[in-house]
Inverse folding.
């Protein structure tokens, strides 16, 4: 179901996906305005209380702006929008959104963003790495200059995940590069059922 | 903008617009001579209808607004008085070449008159965009439009607003826009100005289309010195609706309210249609045109799209029109003329970004992301409520009347009172002189057969690599990777495949395929044949993926219609298109003409860009251009002759343009398309790729690289001709194992020559007895060019 940005109401859902897109045109910093959307006033406490939340692309940016995830997404290293299938490695399956993958599993999803370079302070990076909260990283050279090749990170409890590439574009070989992205959605069904 | 209806009645015979100068009359003392359209304001107030009647002799700046003396006289004749400043503004933009098609209308008529009967056509030429029935209750609407002049002046915003404009055209028909494409042409790839224009255009399209959430599924990118000062940026959009959702641009029912939706009106784009797009670029005067480019806000456009779709679904809108070229002047006059009604508009109710704008400027402004809707009075409150939910500004600015007049007021004073059709439909028509250019015979006599050919296998190999690496044939990922082709989740094919393919119905697999093609070099040699070659290529590309070609759109890019040689090219191109569509059995549903693509006396090559839309019965059976399986038989469909006039090889290796373009056999194209569509439906082929620029050499290389699978072929004829000739009516297919006989039978039944030339497999492209090129070497040549040029 769709939640309306202007309603302070999560309608009792079991999990939330903040999809990609261009909230408010990304005219300011990506996600900087959307974090103030009325629905976020409900989402933030629910996420802190364990609600599974996945932010994809612009959704990841919003989660960082809202303080649910550390760091920020910055302009691609090449200064151009990049839209192409990318290989990523699932680094952790101890999250609500990646439990159906094996650690180290390599999958193909679609990256399509202009501000996808993950950035964080040294201390934050060290903490993320030590806690196993880097959940996905780009294989080979990072396509956008992300710090340590980071493609996705999780909250401490693993219920909130931010992912720059789009798993929803890898659910059917007809319309994307295969079905590797399905695991994110299968994982959350399991997590929601277990809650 | 709407395009002219064929055979529109009530027009003055071409070339008979009243001549002469403004009636002599002495301006009353104290009346200032107007220097600009907005002059006349000040202590004395606006120029009003009353004042215009009282001051018949006041000089008016019609020439600065792009009107001729004869056109100005015609306005006076129509109104029985001099126009007000606001009226003059309306006529100047509505009668501009860009909006009125005054030089092309006479010829475009053929596109309707010769159109083959098509039961699929639900709305044709004359509407914002044509609408085609694709079955299962679905209809699609599609159109291509130019944004050439703005894209040269300001590449980023020019190209961005080009996307925005065509999307609103599609939205105005009642459809949800589902995909875009672009046909782009620039000067030499290594020219300094191309490095300014191309990256700007691409990032503008990327910025606008990506933000709007529309997949960009393909198009064209070509380079030629003729486009150096006049790049071509043609944007196509396709939309989908249910049959019953079709909307037409007409205002009906006196008392209905006129609601302006979307962005506030600002000073951007004033005179864009008349001053910028309807004149050639000069030298020193260019600076004055810079403010004529509009600025895009794709997020507002996204809100506007969703808002309008919700208004449609709620049944609250009785008529709708996008605001593009000529802004409010166009939308009000076309809505009223379309409905045969009158309209009263309070211009001071229009929300402004700049409070200093005059009525004339407000009427002419091309501020983006605006629509004009007509709704019953009882529904207005709900309209405004839905708009508020989407945060789309909406303002009632007037109402439909039964007076038959478009009456515009400004703070209570009448500033315009005209018959709407006089602006929308009764603009001047010109039968401009057309004559075959003096150099045409010499150009055609310059046969490329005299050109030295490469020697031996090593020479062929070197030429293949050189052609594959040339900017026009090189890998376009540098461009296409800046476009989101995935969004909305229905893209079954996108660049670099032959056509873009969008799934319309998830259950049945119904989809639409689109391809756009053009070739200025062929058209320079012979505009009639060249246009048919563009049509044939787009037709083949759509068929290659397995779709059935159904309808045609076109964007006719030419130099100045005031040059008889250019006008000859134009008339030949239109005739070629009309005749070609007749043979192929598919109608033109709409399009756009862009004249004045020239700087000084140097016109671009005539460049009609033709878009073909096809219906795919089941996108799950789509065929790509990629060789993906080893050991399959490669079959060449069609016949190859030694045809090098206008070829990529002749341009690249010899800087040559001469002779005749390849011959066109549209009946054979139709048969070829039937084979390609049939083979896809029956699952006979795993790959199909059209042969065009660079011939078989480029096609084989592209298919190998797209699928990472090599091939080995034995050429059934003179090797050079087989590799580089650009004969039309050909495609290569890779046949699924065990299906060879069925394909042969299908070809025989359709009368399509089919020649087995080799098989897929390995990691190189091998031409037996001649050369071998490893895929890695092919890839390096193909992929390095654009990144090396543009970073």
């Amino acid at each position: 179901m769709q939640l309306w940005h202007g309603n302070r109401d999560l309608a009792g859902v079991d999990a939330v996906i903040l999809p990609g897109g261009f909230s408010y045109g990304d005219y300011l910093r990506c996600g900087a305005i959307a974090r103030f959307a009325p629905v976020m006033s409900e989402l933030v406490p629910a996420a802190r209380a364990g609600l599974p939340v996945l932010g994809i692309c612009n959704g990841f940016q919003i989660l960082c702006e809202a303080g649910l995830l550390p760091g920020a997404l910055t302009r691609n290293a090449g200064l151009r929008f990049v839209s192409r299938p990318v290989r990523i490695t699932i680094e952790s399956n101890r999250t609500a959104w990646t439990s159906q993958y094996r650690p180290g599993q390599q999958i193909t999803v679609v990256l399509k963003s202009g501000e996808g370079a993950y950035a964080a302070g040294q201390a934050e990076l060290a903490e993320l790495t030590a806690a196993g909260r880097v959940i996905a990283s780009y294989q080979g050279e990072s396509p956008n200059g992300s710090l340590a090749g980071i493609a996705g990170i999780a909250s401490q409890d693993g219920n909130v995940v931010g992912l720059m590439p789009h798993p929803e574009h890898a659910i059917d070989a007809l319309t994307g590069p295969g079905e590797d992205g399905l695991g994110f959605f299968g994982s959350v069904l399991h997590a929601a059922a277990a809650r | 903008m709407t395009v002219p209806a064929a055979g529109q009645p009530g027009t003055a015979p071409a070339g008979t617009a009243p001549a002469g100068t403004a009636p002599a009359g002495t301006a009353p003392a104290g009346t200032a001579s107007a220097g600009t359209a907005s002059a006349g304001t000040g202590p004395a107030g606006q120029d009003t209808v009353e004042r215009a009647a009282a001051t018949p002799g006041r000089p008016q700046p019609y020439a600065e607004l792009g009107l001729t003396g004869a056109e100005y006289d015609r306005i006076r004749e129509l109104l029985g008085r001099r126009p007000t400043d606001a009226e003059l503004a309306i006529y100047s933009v509505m009668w501009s070449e860009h909006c009125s098609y005054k030089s092309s209308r006479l010829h475009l008529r053929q596109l309707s008159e010769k159109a083959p009967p098509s039961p699929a056509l639900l709305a044709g030429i004359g509407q914002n965009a044509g609408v085609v029935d694709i079955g299962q209750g679905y209809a699609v609407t599609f159109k291509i439009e130019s944004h050439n002049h703005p894209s040269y002046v300001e590449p980023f915003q020019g190209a961005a607003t080009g996307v925005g404009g065509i999307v609103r055209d599609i939205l105005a028909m009642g459809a949800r826009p589902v995909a875009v494409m672009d046909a782009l042409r620039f000067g030499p790839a290594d020219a300094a100005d191309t490095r300014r224009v191309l990256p700007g255009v691409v990032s503008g399209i990327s910025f606008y289309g990506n933000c709007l959430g529309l997949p960009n599924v393909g198009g064209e990118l070509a380079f030629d010195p003729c486009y150096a000062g006049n790049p071509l940026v043609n944007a196509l959009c396709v939309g989908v609706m249910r049959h019953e959702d079709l909307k037409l641009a007409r205002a009906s029912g006196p008392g209905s309210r006129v609601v302006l939706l979307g962005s506030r009106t600002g000073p951007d784009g004033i005179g864009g249609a008349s001053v910028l797009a309807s004149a050639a670029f000069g030298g020193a005067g260019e600076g004055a045109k810079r403010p004529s480019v509009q600025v895009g806000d794709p997020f507002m456009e996204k809100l506007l799209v969703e808002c309008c779709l919700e208004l449609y679904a709620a049944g609250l809108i009785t008529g709708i029109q996008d605001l593009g070229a000529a802004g409010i002047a166009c939308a009000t006059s076309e809505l009223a003329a379309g409905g045969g009604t009158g309209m009263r508009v309070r211009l001071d109710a229009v929300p402004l970004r700049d409070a200093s704008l005059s009525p004339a400027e407000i009427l002419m402004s091309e501020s983006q992301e605006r629509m004009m809707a007509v709704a019953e009075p009882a529904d207005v409150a709900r309209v405004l409520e839905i708009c508020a939910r989407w945060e789309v500004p909406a303002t009632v600015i007037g109402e439909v009347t039964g007076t038959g007049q478009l009456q515009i007021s400004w703070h209570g004073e009448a500033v315009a009172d005209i018959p709407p059709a006089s602006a929308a439909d009764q603009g001047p028509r010109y039968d401009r002189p057309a004559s075959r250019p003096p150099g045409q015979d010499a150009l055609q006599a310059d046969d490329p057969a005299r050109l030295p050919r490469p020697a031996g296998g090593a020479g062929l190999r070197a030429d293949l690599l050189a052609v594959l690496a040339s900017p026009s044939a090189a890998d376009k990922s540098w461009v296409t990777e800046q476009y989101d082709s995935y969004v909305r989740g229905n893209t079954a094919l996108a660049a670099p495949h032959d056509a873009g393919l969008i799934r319309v119905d998830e259950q049945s697999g119904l989809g639409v395929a689109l391809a756009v093609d053009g070739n200025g070099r062929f058209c320079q040699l012979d505009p009639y044949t060249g246009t048919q070659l563009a049509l044939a290529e787009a037709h083949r590309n759509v068929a290659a993926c397995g779709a059935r070609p159904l309808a045609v759109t076109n964007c006719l890019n030419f130099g100045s219609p005031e040059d008889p040689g250019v006008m000859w090219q134009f008339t030949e191109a239109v005739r070629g298109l009309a005749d070609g569509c007749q043979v192929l059995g598919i109608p033109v549903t709409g399009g756009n003409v862009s004249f004045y693509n020239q700087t000084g006396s140097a016109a671009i090559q005539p460049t009609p860009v033709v878009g073909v839309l096809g219906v795919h019965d089941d996108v799950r059976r789509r065929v790509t251009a990629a060789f993906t399986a080893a050991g399959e038989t490669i079959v060449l469909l069609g016949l190859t002759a030694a045809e090098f006039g206008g070829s990529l090889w002749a341009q690249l290796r010899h800087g040559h343009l001469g002779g005749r373009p390849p011959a066109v056999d549209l009946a054979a194209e139709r048969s070829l398309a039937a084979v390609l569509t049939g083979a896809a439906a029956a699952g006979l082929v795993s790959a199909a790729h059209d042969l065009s620029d660079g011939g078989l050499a480029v096609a084989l290389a592209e298919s190998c690289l797209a699928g990472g699978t090599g091939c080995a072929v034995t050429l059934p004829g003179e090797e050079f001709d087989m590799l580089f000739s650009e004969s039309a009516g050909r495609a290569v297919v890779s046949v699924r194992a065990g299906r060879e006989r069925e394909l042969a039978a299908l070809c025989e039944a359709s009368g399509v020559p089919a020649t087995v030339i080799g098989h897929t497999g390995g990691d190189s492209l091998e031409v037996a007895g001649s050369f071998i090129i490893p895929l890695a070497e092919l890839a390096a040549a193909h992929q390095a060019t654009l990144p090396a040029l543009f970073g």
